[in-house]
Design goal:
Two copies of one chain form a homodimer. By secondary structure, chain A is an alpha+beta fold. The first copy, chain A, is 35% helix and 22% strand. Chain A contains twelve helices and 16 strands. Chain A is elongated and about 80 Å long. The structure holds N-(aminocarbonyl)-beta-alanine (2 copies).
């Protein structure tokens, strides 16, 4: 069993970096706060006696050699970046739990026969730069590194420049250079189902698929007073139509389908000017890839209808499409048997959030451990997981990882 | 007749201050660019030999004494502030035309028996700080100066601090200290009706009334993936509902009613976060105050419906209510007879935009001259008035003002 006190201390240390006034975290990918928490992570890797490796995309690895020089590597990871005003557990708990596992091995002088690596993936959140799970996607070969370097935030800063600026564009190749035995990731559920089932821990069997995109409507900025209603092409009216449809579409598609417009930007954004240009995003998710495809087709059709009704132009782009993933039985079983041995009440579930494990599942066998999210809240300062639940999940991860690392 | 070449030169000089790349103007009230154009205005008042007076609210006057020491003052004015990306003519043409009138009197050594003042009003646009027509409203006694000093922009900067910062919090009382004979204002129409009627110049008989307001919806920021559709309180969905209603309401009220949501701000504004808080503005206008009142009641009711449908909280505030105004016959007649004597084709109309003349009409007899807006475009870099039309309107103003200043 791991050290509960140290787990709490490590969680508190990281949560102090990028802390917001209302108890949340503002640690956007490749920001100054991200640099600071990455520096903290390097220090912890050093304390744990791991060999550090930073790749060209900023993914940062710590490696512990196994007793068998030919054995394949067990990889544990998650992310330290956050939403603009996100919670303290999202991502960070997975990193801290992995650290806690290797610190416990070190303390007890246990060397499994498989080597162990722990990794902090670059830009999991996808808030500042899209797509989400960008670093793991590059590493797993789902995206071309040159394309991802050029992705820009709302101010036009690129990933490549920001990696350089914070000093985390490393020298190691951003791709698997050895054989991996398995990938495990601990994360908070970010939804209500473990709490509803009164479970101690979640055994994750897969991840939903998703489509993200961006629509820009271009109408005509004009004076909101003397311009008659029938002379208007109001970009915000078209965008509002789409927002209403995105609220409706999931109910027409599937039981588990969700759809959201999370981002909207208006130009010029003045009380007495008809909006000339409006940009919105869409996001739809479902365990069934065919449903995701239908959601994509539907939202594009609705955006076209909205544009034509209001007489505005439209451009759209799908910024991310992730297929749904089913994890490997042997990894799911390792998590399940760890939870069972520890006598935790567990619940099997499909993740409604995307995770780096999505991409890792194409490189090696993967699975995840979920910690209970109270009230199901996440991407908000109100995100909360009790220390009991943090501990249960971290213990499950450690025991599952130990199983996979020991033949 | 005035000097057409000088009119063009003055227009070009002011348009260089705060010029944007796409040919527009960014000269928000009390910004650095506003300070610069105010400095330019002071210089021109000086050249024209006028006595300068800056009041406590930054309204800036130049005074030319008349031959009769007991005669009441004829006031000519408009504004030099602009929208975030506005046009070159909106406001500025009225200031330049007033300057051109006094420069012409000076050149010809004509001294009317009435004194003449020209004025640049603070914050006519109402974009950075609400309400619009703020400086003239304070001066005319429609608003309390202490309240208006405290109005803040989106970054929390107040009018009082910004007036201090740019050095335009003057010492003169912000209220009429003498008797006024009349107020005349030249402005671009900002709508399509003069162009449609093929008129050279507009004779303005009144101004529509309006209501402006702000609604804030507060839902729950949460993760857009694992949060089921029926667990959501999405502030942007409620806002979208209201935007759709604002597009519809004018058609249910009156032929001349217009309604607009020009501003929208989302928090946290991230592709994968359910919007927790959204703020929108409304604006409705109509020549009939009873219709404006109905629009206000309707939009509040719709916002309440939208909030209850989506399960979000709402707060609203009416930030501005201006009654419609009918100008005094003797001022309308002065403008009409000036246009007729100059053999311009004129059209009488009610202004769909608000103007400082709204407030001045409560202090003295007022009217306005409109210049043709090509394509009716305004509050946009595409705003355009030909030099012929600028000249026709400025000439009409000069002749009407001369009539009123000479008994
Ligand atoms: N787990 C998580 O919040 N990932 C970010 C990408 C997503 O929106 O699912
Ligand atoms: N004329 C003008 O654009 N005034 C600003 C206030 C309004 O929106 O009418």
């Amino acid at each position: 069993e791991i050290d509960r006190e140290r787990l709490v201390r490590l969680m508190r240390e990281q949560a102090a970096i990028g802390a917001t006034e209302d108890g949340g975290l503002d640690r956007l990918a490749l920001s100054d706060a991200d640099r600071e928490v990455r520096d903290w992570f390097l220090e912890k890797l050093d304390v744990a006696g791991l060999d550090v490796r930073i790749d060209e995309f900023g993914n940062t690895f710590g490696r512990l050699e196994g007793s068998d020089p030919n054995a394949s590597t067990v990889l544990l990871g998650s992310h330290l970046d956050s939403q603009p005003n996100g919670g303290q557990y999202d991502g960070a708990l997975g990193i801290v739990a992995a650290l806690e596992f290797v610190l416990t091995l070190d303390e007890r002088a246990i060397t499994p026969n498989h080597p162990i690596e722990i990794v902090n993936w670059t830009n999991e959140e996808g808030s500042r730069f899209q797509p989400a799970m960008q670093g793991s996607g590059v590493w797993a070969g789902a995206h071309d590194i040159a394309d991802e370097y050029e992705k820009a935030d709302a101010d036009g800063e690129t990933v490549a420049d920001e990696l350089e600026r914070i000093g985390y564009k490393g020298g190691a190749p951003a791709s698997p250079q050895k054989e991996y035995e398995a990938y495990l990731e601990l994360h908070v559920e970010q939804g209500p189902s473990l709490e509803t089932a009164e479970a101690d821990v979640g055994v994750v069997t897969g991840i939903v698929g998703f489509t993200w995109g961006e629509v820009t409507f271009t109408g005509e900025a004009d004076h909101s007073g003397p311009t008659p209603m029938n002379h208007r092409s109001d970009a915000l009216v078209a965008a509002a139509d789409v927002i209403t449809q995105v609220r409706r579409i999931p109910g027409t598609l599937g039981e588990r389908t969700v759809g959201t417009v999370g981002y909207l930007d208006v130009d010029p954004n003045s009380v007495n000017v008809i909006p000339g240009e409006v940009r919105i995003t869409w996001g739809f998710r479902d365990p069934d890839d065919a449903v995701v495809e239908r959601a994509f087709e539907t939202v594009v059709r609705e955006a076209e209808h909205a544009a034509s009704r209001e007489g505005v132009d439209l451009e759209y782009e799908e910024t991310m499409r992730a297929p749904s993933v089913e994890f490997a039985d042997r990894c799911i079983d390792a998590v399940q048997s760890a939870a069972d041995e520890l006598e935790y009440d567990s619940k099997r579930l499909i993740s409604g959030a995307g995770h780096d494990a999505t991409h890792l599942a194409s490189v090696t066998d993967a699975s995840m451990v979920f910690a209970v999210s109270e009230g199901g809240k996440s991407h908000s300062p109100e995100e909360y997981t009790s220390w009991d639940d943090c501990y249960a999940a971290a213990n499950t991860l450690a025991n599952a990882a130990f199983q996979l690392a020991t033949d």
